[in-house]
Design brief:
Elements (H helix, E strand, L loop, with lengths): L4 E4 L1 H9 L13 H7 L3 E6 L2 H9 L3 H11 L5 E5 L12 H14 L3 E4 L10 H9 L3 E7 L8 H14 L3 E6 L6 H14 L4 E5 L6 H11 L3 E4 L13 H8 L10 H16 L15 H4 L3 H13 L6 H14 L9 H14 L9 H7 L12 H8 L17 H7 L7 H9 L1 H13 L13 H4 L8 E6 L2 E10 L6 E8 L2 E8 L2 E2 L11 E2 L18 E2 L5 E6 L6 E2 L4 E7 L2 E6 L4 E6 L6 E2 L6 E4 L2
Parallel strand pairs: 1-2, 1-8, 2-3, 3-4, 4-5, 5-6, 6-7, 7-8
Antiparallel strand pairs: 9-10, 10-11, 11-12, 13-14, 15-22, 16-18, 16-21, 17-20, 18-19, 20-22
Helix pairs in contact: 1-13, 5-6, 5-19, 7-8, 8-9, 14-15, 19-20
Length: 615
């Protein structure tokens, strides 16, 4: 029997880390027969960001993906990543929702549940672990590894002892950012082995270049399962290459017993698959030792880059990476793993994009500072807390203790659209996009986001057909133009935000005709149709009473009505940007006299969304 076992991550964390979780189920199934025959301890294939990506971008049913993979992998454990009381969303769910989600995940094919909490707050893990054991499945309790003034080996050992006491079957050391060094890994594994009798499973991203050595030293210290990824989706922000570690351990007392030629054949398949998703390729595919400072985990880096690109602000990436450690310190040094990585990363992006720290604070940061995600590991910056939540009370109990049962309420809200308990749970995870997905499924109109043809990358080397930085010459003068973002596309005049010789400007473009893009079979110019809603186009912000968003996003709620009196700082709308909700506040006190935005509208910073008349 092999002394060291391997969990391969190609079906989840590999493509989450390198192509923003965009691999479609149809590209997984053809190779499952060979994956199933390798002899992996498990295949991580569900959870993490895959559920969100299936619904939001791929327009797939995540539950159906799980069922198909279960049928295609009859001999291999399917593993999922579960965020404890957060499940797969960005908030705490009630205990009845947690239990139902775990049971349905088990029913549909999950064998191993890697359960973690972003705060390492064991209170947030208890119900999930109990539910996994009740379903008769394998509970892998997780220690999220990070470095800070408040994190050390005795701290992590106490966490591992707590997980063992809960009844976990294995202990995972989850090094989501590649911060764990080889000799620290050796010491940590030895210490946990001395404190518990559970098998230890190590997980380390390759971002910093340390992960191969870290796994080797962990194995020498007694770890018996390691996470790797087949070569086509390995390295960089992903994980050490499966083939490399199989070869490194071959012929030793730690020999995995796995077939290199078979794994290489699987990797060759995924190498071709990856070409389809070139437009989502992470710019952070190589070693990046900056992670040792900014601590952004591999699973987040490609998504953060993609989200900044959607904001027209990819050039701000370095500034955001520099801001992340500062925000993390303000929030008491939480480990950066979903959802805290997204919470910290998005707030850092807001701080950079708005030009002022905490000028705009996401709802999730406010909840975090109220203790609604659990106990912060370190001291929270009280000045930041005051800015964000004022004098609101801070929760000290287990956050989910404040929640009543939610499942029946959720069933009522989605009655008529949900065909199963799984549909209800999809809605529970992501109410807005989940409901839209269910509506579109009922209408037969689900369409995945467009995959641009691979040939386009030969000219653009990026996910676009036209340049976003160029020079133009007009009347003998040459100007350097850089496109930094664009506004709503359904308006008669679309705003574009550009830099002209380094000076930020806004230009309005009115389309008079359109030409079909390559591949449509038609390149005939045609008159542009009247833009939907153009007659009611939002006015541009022009005075202090106009309420605007800090960054492009989508309106998810309007909190005021015409005639309502508001104070400066009162919530007016809620905007979703970069997967986080941001409450837009009234800039002045007065009376709401106009509301230009409605739920579902795409908005940009130049638009007036609400008008307030001073009293």
């Amino acid at each position: 029997m092999a002394k060291v076992h391997i969990t391969d991550l190609v079906l989840r964390d590999g493509h989450q880390s390198l192509i923003a979780t965009r691999m479609q189920t149809a590209d997984m199934l053809p190779i499952c027969g060979k994956l199933d025959s390798v002899g992996f301890w498990s295949l991580e294939a569900w959870g993490g960001a895959t559920f969100d990506a299936c619904v939001r971008f791929l327009r797939e049913d995540p539950w159906e993906r799980l069922r198909k993979l279960r049928r295609a992998l009859p001999n291999t454990r399917i593993q999922m990543l579960l965020r404890g009381q957060n499940l797969l969303g960005y908030r705490n769910y009630s205990d009845d929702v947690v239990r139902a989600f775990v049971q349905k995940s088990a029913d549909n094919g999950v064998d191993v549940f890697r359960v973690f909490d972003a705060m390492n707050d064991l209170r947030n893990l208890r119900v999930s672990v109990e539910a996994v054991k009740a379903a008769g499945k394998h509970a892998e309790g997780t220690v999220c590894y990070t470095t800070s003034p408040v994190h050390n080996i005795p701290h992590f050992v106490e966490l591992a002892k707590g997980l063992a006491a809960m009844g976990c079957d294995t202990i995972a050391i989850k090094d989501m950012a590649g911060l764990l060094t080889p000799y620290t890994a050796f010491e940590l594994v030895q210490a946990i082995r001395a404190a518990t009798d559970l098998p230890i499973h190590t997980h380390s991203h390759a971002t910093s270049g340390l992960a191969h050595m870290t796994h080797m030293k962990a194995v020498e210290a007694g770890a018996t399962i390691i996470d790797t990824c087949v070569g086509a989706f390995a390295e960089g922000a992903s994980h050490p290459t499966t083939q490399s570690l199989v070869a490194a351990l071959a012929g030793t007392e730690y020999d995995t017993g796995l077939s290199l030629p078979l794994i290489e054949e699987i990797s060759a398949y995924f190498k071709e698959v990856r070409k389809k998703y070139w437009q989502f390729e992470s710019a952070f595919a190589g070693t990046d030792t900056r992670v040792l400072i900014n601590q952004v985990p591999g699973g987040m880096i490609s998504n953060l880059a993609n989200q900044l690109k959607e904001q027209g602000a990819l050039d701000k990436m370095d500034a955001v990476l520099e801001e992340i450690p500062r925000v993390r310190e303000d929030l008491g040094f939480p480990p950066l793993v979903t959802p805290t990585s997204q919470i910290v990363g998005t707030q850092a992006a807001l701080n950079v994009l708005t030009g002022a720290r905490y000028k705009s604070v996401t709802n999730e940061v406010k909840l975090y500072l109220q203790g609604r995600y659990g106990k912060a590991p370190g001291h929270i910056n009280e000045e930041v807390r005051k800015i964000a939540i004022g004098d609101l009370d801070v929760t000290t109990c287990r956050p989910a203790d404040l929640l009543g049962d939610e499942l029946d309420k959720l069933r009522g809200e989605i009655e008529g659209l949900a065909k199963s308990d799984e549909d209800v749970l999809t809605y529970a995870m992501f109410p807005e996009i989940g409901k839209t997905w269910l509506q579109e499924r009922a209408a037969g109109s689900l369409k995945p986001e467009q995959l641009l043809p691979p040939g386009a990358s030969e000219q653009d080397n990026g996910p676009r057909y036209a340049a976003d930085e160029f020079k133009i010459t007009l009347h003998g003068e040459t100007y350097h133009i850089k496109l930094s973002g664009s506004g709503r596309s359904d308006a008669a005049q679309r705003p574009y935000f550009v830099s002209i010789d380094g000076v930020s400007e806004e230009v309005l473009v009115e389309s008079l005709n359109e030409v079909a893009v390559s591949g449509s079979g038609d390149s005939t110019p045609r008159k542009a149709a009247a833009a939907p809603g153009a007659a009611g186009q939002k006015p541009r912000a022009s005075h202090p009473g106009h309420v605007t968003a800090a960054m492009p996003g989508t309106v998810v709620d309007v909190l005021v009505s015409i005639g309502q009196t508001v104070k400066a700082g009162d919530g007016v709308l809620v905007i979703e940007a970069m997967k986080m909700e941001n409450e837009v506040q009234a800039p002045i006190a007065g009376i709401v006299i106009s509301i230009f935005a409605k739920k579902g509208d795409a908005v940009t910073p130049d638009m007036a969304l609400v008008e307030i008349q001073p009293e």
